[in-house]
Amino acid sequence: MLGRLAIRHRLTPALEKAGGHIGYDVRPSARRQRHATAMLAAALPLACSLGITHALLTCDETNTASQRVIEANGGRSIDMAGHKRRYQVPTS
Ligand SMILES: CC(C)(COP(=O)(O)OP(=O)(O)OC[C@H]1O[C@@H](n2cnc3c(N)ncnc32)[C@H](O)[C@@H]1OP(=O)(O)O)[C@@H](O)C(=O)NCCC(=O)NCCS
């Protein structure tokens, strides 16, 4: 197992602030090999097929790796919710 990714079909008020539609992590020994970037790219068409046109993703303001993963997949920063930066990522 290299990592895991979860697609949340619906947002709750809590997920709107932290968590969003998609969350992921990569095993520490397998990081920096582009797995997370590829995992998110593979997940976006699945989210689209669930009717999510723009996925909400959140990450800590200090999480540079996750921010790069999101931006490499077309994510656009929309705002901050507490210490979380929120992004909108088109799914198609
Ligand atoms: C965030 C995480 C999923 C990234 O996984 P990964 O497979 O290492 O990411 P990638 O290899 O696809 O790297 C994506 C970009 O981030 C950069 N990056 C990776 N780790 C980095 C680090 N520790 N510091 C700075 N940049 C980093 C890579 O260089 C790459 O940049 P590039 O596109 O400009 O070349 C992984 O670090 C992780 O599991 N972290 C803990 C859980 C977590 O934070 N999940 C996300 C919650 S929002």
TrEMBL record:
SUPFAM superfamilies: Acyl-CoA N-acyltransferases (Nat). The keyword Membrane applies. Keywords: Membrane, Transferase, Transmembrane, Transmembrane helix. The chain crosses the membrane at residues 37-57. Residues 17-75 form the N-acetyltransferase domain. GO terms for molecular function: acyltransferase activity, transferring groups other than amino-acyl groups. InterPro entries: Acyl_CoA_acyltransferase, GNAT_dom. PANTHER family: ACETYLTRANSFERASE (PTHR39173). This is Putative acetyltransferase. It comes from Kitasatospora kifunensis.
